[in-house]
Amino acid sequence: MRVLIVEDDLVIQQQLREALTRTGYSVDAAGDGQEGLFLGSNYPYDVALIDLGLPKLDGSSLILQLRKRRCLYPILILTARDAWQEKVTALEAGADDYVVKPFHLPEVLARIQVLIRRTHGLAQSDIQRGPLRLNISTQTFWLNDQVITLTAYEYRVLEYLILHPGQVISKTELTEHIYDQDFDRDSNTLEVFIRRLRKKIDPAETLNPIETLRGRGYRFAL
Amino acid sequence: MLFKRYFPQTLTARVLFLASGVLVVLLGIMALVLRSAYSDSTQAAERAKLQTSIYSLLAAAEMVNGKLVLPENLPDTQFNQLSSGRYAGVLNAADQWIWQSQSALGQDLPFLPQVASGLFEFRSLSYATQACFALGYGTMWKRGRKMVPYTFWVMVSQQSFRAQLKTFQDTLVRGFVVIGCLLGLFQLGILRWALRPLKKLSTAIVAVEQGNAQQVTGRYPSELQQLVDNMNQLIVSADRQRQKIHNTLSDLAHSLKTPLAVVRNELYLSALRGDISADHNKLLGEQTQRMDDIIQYQLRKVARHSGHHSAVIAVKPLIESLLASLQKLYAVKALQLTLMLDSKAVFVGDADDLYEIVGNLLDNAFKYAAQQVSCYSEQGDSLQIIIEDDGQGIAEDQYEVVLQRGVRADERVAGQGIGLAVVSELVASYQGHLHLTKSPLGGLRVRLML
């Protein structure tokens, strides 16, 4: 999952980046509204965290601009101003939720999880697909109720595919959602991740949960 | 002190009181002057009549054998009737009455002096228990070769004069009372007309005070227009000041919350990295939470005392915008909403405050509701908003506790939401009421009166 942070306070931005990266997200960050608009409208994020008081372009205007450009990913507002009128203005502009500063990082992470679940129409954090089970909140994976350890990138690939069951996901799309913009991308690496994942989640090679569609990408087929 | 207490307090009463006083004094002086002029004029007429009588006596008198003689019956018959009120007498050089009219028969004429020849003397005196006017005329009669002095005195009772004067006085008083009343009414009419702009100004100020207008509006006489302009400038200046305080507080909140967020986040990340012990983390976490609570509490306290920016706010669109936002926030719960919102309902006060009050109440309802939330608003003598949910509700013995105001943030009972306390403080600042009861839906029913 790829997250955009638009926050002018560089310390908070760095802390959010660290917390999100530790949780398994790939993160891009912008320090002002204009940079946020550029990143937000050019990359396919899964969720965005936007501070309301931003230089160059304020948070509400940024959200409005992103929605006008048909960027439909969920947006979580970070605000120090907790007046209802300001919350309503930001939510009417197109935000999906808010957290008030000084926030607790676990709360931010939980809200992001809720937004992702809501976007994918999930009522709970557990996703069961046949004998496979994934908890997006604890980032734990089970095969036949046995916990399987995955690396951060393996988890990202699997989570993205499970959240888009039956859809053909191109290598480019998958790459864009699991890496941040500064990462040196190599399509061979993705193939390596997929191969390793298949071995871990289907050691008996009976389920074939991840199909390869030549020249088109991958599909989660359970 | 006593004067101040009983002195009229309204402008109209003051002007009327003073003007009526001046009017009474002026009319009184005028009455005295007119009475005096009428009295003088009537006296002069009486004197002229007496003078005519003297001339007729002189014409009737003749010297017979060295003795001045007057006929028994005089042409003026009043001199011939006893106690008629008109008397005459002739005084010789020895101050003896040598003749007196039949009207004074049996009575001694009063002592009167001799008057120099050719001169008149007019005086007022008392005779036969009556007040009289008396006119004397000095004359010389030839007796042989000698010229002998005589003084002719004629007296008339003042009864008729006084009756005339009284009639005049009564007419004068009646006339002046009527004139005084008419002038008073006229004055009252003028005052009302002249003070009408003040009444209009007072109504306009009340409208500003109640939040029905932002400025004192309307055209006023030039004397008042300057005051109105100054007042409007004062209102604008006060609004700016209030806005400035509000903005400063808002900026303060922002500037304090961001570093607090940094500290809190760093604690969390340090714990993840293993840079800090669990005890230290817990202690510092509690202290940052306490700092946050104190900041919130003090900010609310100052905001509460910075006054309200009053305006007339339509309640329905405000509630609808809040509901739209809350439905987005609580989309996962897919709550069933029952709404009955009066489109005429208005709130006179600060829009931010109504957002906070209704926003917190609806947020609580959405947060705790299982399936249903209902919102009802009605405009009667006051604004009534009822919000209900089908959640767990609050135990009846906790109603007072959750609404308790003035509790220090750092002394707050753990786990007690501050939403209702904030609402309670704001509602109290508008002299409103907040009633918590059990809802027929099963959860909490909050009835708000503003």
Describe the secondary structure blueprint for this structure.
The complex is a heterodimer of chains A (222) and B (450).
Chain A: E1 2-6, H1 10-23, E2 26-30, H2 33-42, E3 47-51, H3 59-68, E4 75-79, H4 84-93, E5 97-100, H5 105-119, E6 126-129, E7 132-135, E8 140-143, E9 146-148, H6 152-163, E10 168-169, H7 171-178, H8 187-201, E11 210-213, E12 217-220
Parallel strand pairs in A: 1-2, 1-3, 3-4, 4-5
Antiparallel strand pairs in A: 6-7, 7-8, 8-9, 10-12, 11-12
Helix pairs in contact in A: 2-3, 3-4, 6-8
Chain B: H1 2-6, H2 11-60, E1 62-64, E2 67-69, E3 86-91, E4 97-100, E5 120-127, E6 130-143, E7 146-157, H3 159-209, H4 222-273, H5 278-305, E8 311-314, H6 315-329, E9 336-341, E10 346-349, H7 351-368, E11 372-379, E12 383-389, H8 399-403, H9 419-429, E13 433-438, E14 444-449
Parallel strand pairs in B: 9-11
Antiparallel strand pairs in B: 1-2, 3-4, 3-7, 5-6, 6-7, 8-10, 11-12, 12-14, 13-14
Helix pairs in contact in B: 2-3, 4-5, 6-7, 7-9
Structure keywords:
heterodimer; A: 222 residues; alpha/beta; 5-stranded parallel sheet; 4-stranded antiparallel sheet; B: 450 residues; alpha+beta; 5-stranded antiparallel sheet; 5-stranded mixed sheet; 9 helices; 14 strands; 52% helix; 20% strand; rod-shaped
Shape type of chain A: elongated
* Fraction of helical residues of chain B: 40-55%
How helix-rich are the residues of chain A, as a percent range?
40-55%
Elements of chain A, N to C (H/E):
EHEHEHEHEHEEEEHEHHEE
Distance between the termini of chain B: 42 Å
Given the C-alpha coordinates, what overall shape of chain B results? rod-shaped
The chain-level structural class of chain B is alpha+beta
Mean pLDDT of chain A: 88
| Low-pLDDT residue intervals, each spanning 5 or more residues of chain B | 406-417
Low-confidence stretches of chain A: none
**Assembly context of the chains:** heterodimer
Protein chains sharing the most extensive interface:
A-B, 32 and 32 residues
Number of helices of chain A: 8
